Amino acid sequence: MALQFLLQQLDTAGTYARILFVDFSSAFNTIIPALLQDQLSQLHVPDSTCRWITDFLPDRKQHMRLGKHVSDPRTISTGSPQGCVLSPLLFSLYTNSCTSSHQSVKLLKFADNTTLIGLISGGDESAYRWEMDHLVTWCWENHLELNALKTVEMVVDFRKNATPPTPITLFDSPVTAVTSFRFLGTIIALDLKREQNICSLIKKAQQRMFFLRQLKKFNLPRTMMVNFYTFITESILTESITIWYATAKDKGRLQRVIRSAEKVIGCNLPSLHNLHASRTLRRAGKIVADPSHPGP
């Protein structure tokens, strides 16, 4: 969705985009159970479920262990436990009411990853800056702490003779401008090209190939090696493949990793083209079947 918004905006002459990648300080630890219960009630969550959740969060005991030393227990009544299956969902519900009121500003949230995208036309950044201030105010009112030092911004501007963007500040600290950012596992570069992301995928996939070769030395059955490759290496090569499908040069580089795996295993494996086609069709089917998706 983020890339779709950007590409649609930049198709129009004289436009550019500012992307604020927001970082929270200990996001899951700052959930206030009473405020969460209000959000759950507004979303018409059954009362029994609300009571179960709000009874689970307060008065949790925890302690620290360092070697043989164990601290005294402390009672915690805020936040959601780290590693808890419910924590990302609870945080999403907790921040459900934080939305954008301007059509030209998109607020994308995925658990504790929050991104503000300002689609700027005619050089007017007022809506983007207003939404940024509104986000800061909302977080303060809901006891969420923004990490100004780790919050960064990227300005995507393909205009000729573009003037340098006016810096933005967060809590009187200038927000760092970056030329690339790993967004939900995918590297978004300032020029929106995919080379950095492809290089990262290839590096990780080649590292996984080491384990495949080790399994070959132990004469692991071919079926098990194919399964290992599918889950450990192919999953890396196809990460976000439905949105970044590469140029011919980059596809050749990715395909060479697949050929290497074929030589190690000793059988044919699905090509990158076939993997892209199958995953794109699967994704398209899910989009069509989801009436709430903005794609259709």
TrEMBL record:
This is Reverse transcriptase domain-containing protein. SUPFAM superfamilies: DNA/RNA polymerases (SSF56672). It holds the Pfam family ALKBH8_N. It comes from the Eukaryota. The lineage of its organism: Eukaryota, Metazoa, Chordata, Craniata, Vertebrata. PANTHER family: REVERSE TRANSCRIPTASE DOMAIN-CONTAINING PROTEIN. It comes from Champsocephalus gunnari. GO terms for molecular function: 2-oxoglutarate-dependent dioxygenase activity; methyltransferase activity. Residues 1-188 form the Reverse transcriptase domain.
